[in-house]
Amino acid sequence: MDLTDTAISHYTITGKIGAGGMGVVYKARDTKLNRDVALKFLPDTSTVDAESQKRFLQEAQSIAQINHPNICQIYGIEEDDHGGRFIVMEYVDGVNLDEAFISSSGLQTRQPKGGSENTGTQKKPETRSELILDFAIQIARGLDAAHQKGVIHRDIKPANIMITDTGQVKILDFGLAKPSGVDDITRVGATLGTISYMSPEQIKGTGVDKQSDVWSFGVVLYQMVTGRLPFGGDYEHSIMYSVMNTDPPPIPNSDHQLSEQFIKLIERCLSKDVEGRYPSATELLEELLEIAGYSTVNVKLSSNEPKKPSSGKPALRTRKVLFGSGVLAILFLTVFMLFNRSDLLQSGSGTPGTELIHVAVLPFSNIGADPGRQVFADGLVETITSQLSRLEQFQTDLWVVPPGELRSHNITSAGEANRMFGVNYAIAGSLQPISDRLRLTITLIDSKNLRQINSAVVDVDASEVLELHNKSVENLLTMLNLELNQETIGVINEGKTTVPAAFELYVQGLGYLQKYEQKSENIDNAINAFNEAVAIDNDFALAHAGLGQAYWSKYENTRERTWINRAVEVSKIAYDLNNKLLQVNITRGMISSGTGNYEEAIQYFNDALSTDPTSADALLGLAEAYEYTGNYEQAESTYKRAIRLKPDYWAGYNYLGAFYYRNSNYDKAKEQFRRVIEVTPDNYRGYMNLGSMHYFTEQLEEARAMYEKSLDLEKTYSAASNLGTLYFIEGKYPESADMYTTAIEINDGNYVLWGNLASAYYWSPGKRNQSFSVYERALELAKEQNEINPNNPDIIINMAGYEARLGNKKQAITHVQQALEYAPESATIMYLAGSVYEQLGVRSKALTWIKSAMDAGYSRSDIVNQPELQELIRDPRFQEILKTEPR
Questions:
Q1: % of the chain at pLDDT higher than 90
Q2: How far is Cα 282 from Cα 144, in angstroms, rounded to an integer?
Q3: Other CB atoms within 10 Å distance of the CB of residue 749
Q4: Which of 244-253, 466-475, 517-526 has the lowest average pLDDT?
Q5: Which of 98, 144, 155, 537 is catalytic?
Q6: With 126 labelled, which of 187, 283, 366, 757 sits at a CA distance of 20 to 30 A?
Q7: Residue 717, pLDDT score
Q8: Residues 6+ apart with CB under 8 A from 594
Q9: Contact call for residues 761 and 735 (beta carbons, < 8 A)
Q10: Which phi and psi (to 5°) does residue 412 adopt?
Q11: Cβ-contact 265, 137 below 8 angstroms
């Protein structure tokens, strides 16, 4: 029965699009939302077929998992008046790939209007070969999005690939798709899909996975290039025989001006041996982009992919701020601090082997009343942990938790270390003065079963602290069954002083430095200790590096520029003394990155990695520097390298998730933050960051639950501020202000928190006048940050917002222009620029930049929730923008 010209619910059916074994599709008008949609119904002959009903629902579930511009979007599943179900989908105005590009002769050259706007190319595809590559990349992107969600299409063919008039590819008909975790509902002995595009394993009826889609895609590519199918036959069984037993005719490369690499890519897709194919569309996409001369971060196919700035200016963490209310209420993402005070001197990570040795060195206890001895004990934990970490490059089954992580979670027992970090060993120790001697008792503990495995006692003369350290490390290596050879001995002794008094002061400096958050004068104590150490031994490069870090910590605590100059000067001394030392290069890289000299930082971190290729601090510092320069491909690769070295350590996933988030790939970010929680179920950072991803993808209740869980585990300003932002977008401004106040009580030096509080006051009844002094404080703190790093667009755009609220129009516009110059392709900056222009009453520019932000992938729901944008939202011009923007 044809449903044309009938009405179902609020849909008016205007025509029949097509029909097939899995359903009938109609074009309809959604009278509620005033848009065209596609409605898919089960065919009449299948309405009582339980399998068809189940597969029909499976299609809706499959597509609903995926939100990608190269996949036809599903809006919902509804019922008609008779209880019949239908899927409401995006209406794609275009023709299928066969009609658009492939004819029976293979010579059709019809090109979409305007070429493609989605591959990120600098010019429109003009030749047939360019168009083939353009379409191939878009199809691969859509498949990659499906594969990332565990969805296998199982019927990739030209009829299921639509091309719009603007050249955008849309993959349709997931009616045969199988989501991960869903039982296969194919009848025994049955095959699904179109025979000419089916993989050998599909024909045989064996397991079907992502590589089956890769095969089908290879058939499509072959057909696009040659105009014919790779496996011929006059009837079904002859085609099946050809697929199983014959090779496709060679592709005549000279006819199509395609690179040899592209031809080999098609051949690999059509490997009859599954192992010979690409594992999934992800790897296939990467090679296609390489062939096209782009990377996964250069290409604008998807708003979920990182985007490379077109200017030569650094794109400094263009996604560092999540979005709360324009330039005002901002959401935080917590990333484990790369250079966490004395953790700077901790290196490395390793690849766990079959017998994993995951170790946490717990804080050493101090027996006796001397507080100075406790500082030495704390520093000793730092140096011992550092030495064990350095051995990770030689011991593939070893990795060591940085002591800063233990401190941040207040971990003091083996059981806590096992629950938080998954370590199977913990090292405990106690330091005790006995007459004129020092005794260190170290114990190796099975942290799973909480039993002592081994212990050792090291007794030395009180003045021989260097010997105490060395013997402790040797004993621990023996306890852990780690080999002490010439190579490891060289690493242990690298950069050390031979003067015990200098080493003792160096250890004290580390001990003070790790606790300066508890007591700010500990920074000065650390500076004094390091200075005394280098006064005794001016060739002690590690002490100079420690002093450089202490000076940098002093700057971070006081924001006085003179400390930067001292940090640079003393770190250069360390570098001149020994430019091969891992810690020296990391210190130089940290300071260079912190002062905006990112190319210098890259060089220093690479030099560090030449010394220790497994150094986690160097890898993460390098990734961050690459990101700051806009080299997102190298940044992503470096973050992944850190994870490969330590796959069951949470920090790597957290960093990679933050990277994806900053570059608008929210689904991938969620996956990484879920991995954080899987690896460390009691990690407050994982819950907070996952909550932020839920917030940004409009899952507010899930976000609230994650933030509350995070606060239950650890009271942090970030989680408190994020809860404040949730209250803010719900219009609960006084409650929002209370949460921001809580955040500032924890951290009163963060300009973003003050900006958030000012925003909440501005919209709270009776608090508007009070907000302006808070804006002034936010602006003051932001300017201090801007003086240190004048190229950071995040700081600049927030300064613009504060200036706008304070009525300083000229300064606000200047800052907007600067931010857009530094981050020309950042959706965040575009949106915030539009918000500033709206506050200044420049509606036309506000509309321009907010539309640009939405085009770049910015959340429309975040925009419509902002109180300062409500007049703009009611503007008919903005309503027209909403109609043209995909949800």
A1: 29
A2: 5
A3: 14
A4: 517-526
A5: 155
A6: 283
A7: 86
A8: 552, 788, 789
A9: no
A10: -125, -5
A11: no
Beta pairing partners, 446: 425, 451
Mean pLDDT, residues 378-398 = 83
Domains of the chain and any CATH numbers = 1-91 (3.30.200.20), 94-302 (1.10.510.10), 358-494 (3.40.50.10070), 716-884 (1.25.40.10)
What's 605-631 look like in SS3?
HHHHHHHCCCCHHHHHHHHHHHHHCCC
How many residues make up the chain in this entry? 887
The mean of the pLDDT values for the chain is 80
Instruction: State which H helix or E strand residue 799 sits in.
Output: helix 793-805
* Mean per-residue pLDDT, 593-604: 89
Strand 398-400 versus strand 425-434 pairing type: unpaired
DSSP string, 682-729: T-HHHHHHHHHHHHHTT-HHHHHHHHHHHHHH---HHHHHHHHHHHHH
Pull the structure tokens for residue 257: 């001006």
C-alpha angle 744-699-325 in degrees, rounded to nearest 5? 45
* d(C-alpha 583, C-alpha 389), whole Å: 12
pLDDT digits over 720-754, tens only? 998 998 888 888 999 999 999 999 998 888 899 99
Check whether 780 has a pLDDT greater than 60. yes
- Kindly report, residue by residue over 13-37, the tens digit of the pLDDT: 999 987 765 678 899 998 877 788 8
> Letter for the amino acid at 476?
L
Q: What gap in Å lies between CA 820 and CA 823, rounded to an integer? A: 5
Burial string for 186-205 (b: 16+ CB within 10 Å, else e) reads beeeeebbebbbbbbbbbee
CB-CB contact of 129 with 256 (8 Å): yes
Query: Is 162 in a helix, a strand, or coil?
Result: strand
For residue 500, give both structure tokens: 């015990």
CA 406 to centroid of chain Cα atoms: 24
For 848, half-sphere exposure in the C-beta direction (CA atoms, 13 angstrom radius) is 6
Instruction: Quickly tell me which residue has 């650094």 as its tokens.
Output: 314
DSSP element (H, E) containing 171: strand 169-171
Per-residue DSSP letters for 656-691? Answer: HHHHHHHTT-HHHHHHHHHHHHHH-TT-HHHHHHHH
DSSP strands (E only) in 224-337: 322-325, 329-331
436 is catalytic: no
What's the number of CA atoms in the CB half-sphere (13 Å) around residue 644? 9
Query: C-alpha distances in angstroms, 512 versus 4, 366, 533, 550, 567?
Result: 78, 15, 14, 10, 17
pTM of the shown model:
0.51
The one-letter amino acid at 604: Y
Q: At residue 779, does pLDDT exceed 70?
A: yes
Question: How many CB atoms neighbour CB 262 within 10 A?
Answer: 22
> pLDDT by residue (tens digit) across 471-519?
888 888 888 887 767 777 777 677 778 898 999 999 899 888 876 555 6
Helices (H) and strands (E) in the chain, counts: 36, 17
Complete DSSP assignment for 90-114 = E---EEEHHHHT--TTS------TT
